[in-house]
């Protein structure tokens, strides 16, 4: 088998437009690589594109449709953000672990002291709640005073996978009781994957003090055997206001593509301006398997493999058995041994962005490194036409496989 059998794609149809507003904020409108899809003989735009607001694209209907009938689809979604650096992202985790991670003991002590809001703390449960989870779902019981946030419906717009607007995120945060000086503590099941994703989203919108409960629900419930309650708390209205998305911690496909193309031309070596770190399991990275669609509905990909030049560091290598993060020097050594060059920035990806956020948290918040999450991840890349893909099996995997 070839150690790195790289298939280079054709030139991308992807384009990027950037618009500066009077306030200096940057609105990035982007068109996905798989720009058009044939539907019943007609052509329907299924990507997002440039423009100054939501617009519709009308095309002729396919065979069998009524004469003159048109198909319409919204074809304009903007990522409104700005490049404002990492000053409000990094919280000094490289100086003190407690600046970005709180222990179960720390939280238990605060709960014993009484109302968390009066102490300037908001506790959030952001769990995946898979049926296979052995941990208690929020609706049955949860850590005292925790509020629940649904990662898939409350953070994103319907049908676009883009995040809610700055104004909508402000409303969400204020409804949770978040103020400018609030310490946001987040935990979840499934090894804190979606808790880390939520932490990244809060940082994306400029929250200054965001911390994970180290070890998450697993550490609290399963390892420590601490109290869970059924009471759902109410929160006083907060006053914190979100900023535009910080594009210094988020990578869109348009940014990843030229790095991947450079790496593909270099036979899969990492020569691009940023490291690429693939967080998925090795058989996914190698291209031996895609994804179990019955478990991860909607997350499958028609192409198997990885982005050229990406190194594979599954998230589990940086955590202990109880779900807590390993020490910072151990984590750094693991990534350096895998080939990550910390003299340049890093882009992390997985399948939909949640495990990549877990790695982002370790590298950015614990180590203080320059890291972005490519939240489109393999569910976007592996369903795009014309992007370069590396497959370590020497075979063609996925829908477009075969002899």
Question: Can you walk me through this structure?
Answer:
The protein folds into 3 domains: 16-82, no CATH class; 97-246, Oxidized Rhodanese, domain 1; 253-391, Oxidized Rhodanese, domain 1 (3-Layer(aba) Sandwich), CATH 3.40.250. The protein is built from 9 helices and 19 strands. The protein has helices spanning 104-113, 166-175, 193-204, 216-223, 253-265, 282-286, 328-338, 354-366, 377-381; strands at 5-7, 16-20, 26-30, 36-39, 42-45, 56-60, 70-74, 78-82, 101-102, 121-125, 147-148, 183-187, 210-213, 245-246, 275-278, 311-312, 346-349, 371-373, 389-391. It starts with a strand and ends in a 12-residue tail after the last strand. It has a 5-stranded parallel sheet with strand order 9-13-12-10-11. A 4-stranded mixed sheet has the order 2-3-8-14, with no helix packed on it. The protein has a 4-stranded parallel sheet with strand order 16-15-17-18, covered by helices on one side. The longest helix has 13 residues, at 253-265. α6 links the parallel β15 and β16 (311-312). The radius of gyration is 22 Å and the shape is globular. It has 403 residues and is α/β, with parallel strands linked by helices.
